[in-house]
Amino acid sequence: MKAPSESANQPRRLVVLVSGSGSNLQAILDACQRGDLNAQVVAVVSNKSDVFALERAAKAGVPTVHVGRQQDERRADFDSRLADVVAGFSPDLVVLAGWMRLLTMSFLGWFPEQVLNLHPALPGELAGTGAIERAWKESAAGSRTRTGVMVHLVPDEGVDDGPVLGTAVVEIDRTKTYDDFEQLMHDTEHRLLVDTLIEICNASATARPDHRGVSA
Ligand code: GRF
């Protein structure tokens, strides 16, 4: 994990990468606003120009940047451009919150031990997109009774499989609707993401977050 900013209490600089509604970004912004999280979202970067996450950032007075992939642009070239934009904000941490693109080392190599990802599944399960819906379908088939959410580091191009910083288990209640289940999963994401960031950002300058992680 990147060395803390200069002084023990200086808010950690977060750059948040988004691709959609930004409900996880909103949870971070709210936690900073409440004073619960010793951090400042210094920029929100999206690969899509028309997403509500950008409106949430603007409303909070946070600089926003849209970095869209150009036609026929190689993935590594896009990632290098994205890294250049993100590095320009001197982040302590880069938080992938609802970010929906796989990142190569052309991006990750710029931010060793600084990139965190939120994934709506438990370690080693349901990697990739649609994890919430897939968990629900597996529970309907009787092959799953629980799922969960995790926050992990992204050291390399592995998909949703980096060192785990926090997990939260969610029991699947089949007496409820899918919408109820999905909302419970998102609520759990919001809580775990903030709790994990608090664990890292509010730690004293000398403390080192260990990978036992947080369970919300
Ligand atoms: C969340 O389930 C997130 O984990 C996934 O996209 C969903 C919406 O995230 N990647 P947000 O509301 O855009 O933060």
Question: Your description of this structure?
Answer:
- The chain has about 220 residues and is an alpha/beta fold.
- The chain has a single domain (about 10-200), classed as Rossmann fold (3-Layer(aba) Sandwich).
- Helices cover about 35% and strands about 20% of the residues.
- It contains 6 helices and 8 strands; from the N terminus they run E-H-E-H-E-H-E-H-E-H-E-E-H-E.
- Helix 2 (about 50-60) links the parallel strand 2 and strand 3.
- The chain starts with 11 loop residues before the first strand and ends with a strand.
- About 35% of the residues are buried.
- The model has no long low-confidence stretch (mean pLDDT about 95).
- 5-O-phosphono-beta-D-ribofuranosylamine binds next to helix 1.
Question: What is the N-to-C order of secondary-structure elements (H for helix, E for strand)?
Answer: EHEHEHEHEHEEHE
* Strand line-up in the sheet with most strands: 3-2-1-4-5-6-7-8
Q: What is the CATH C level class, in words? A: Alpha Beta
CATH architecture: 3-Layer(aba) Sandwich
Count of domain modules: 1
Q: In CATH terms, what is the fold-level topology?
A: Rossmann fold
Q: How many β strands by DSSP?
A: 8
Tell me roughly what share of residues is in helical segments. 25-40%
Rg, please?
17 Å
Helix-strand makeup class: alpha/beta
Shape: globular
Mean pLDDT: 93
Relevant CATH superfamily:
Formyl transferase, N-terminal domain
Strand content: 15-25%
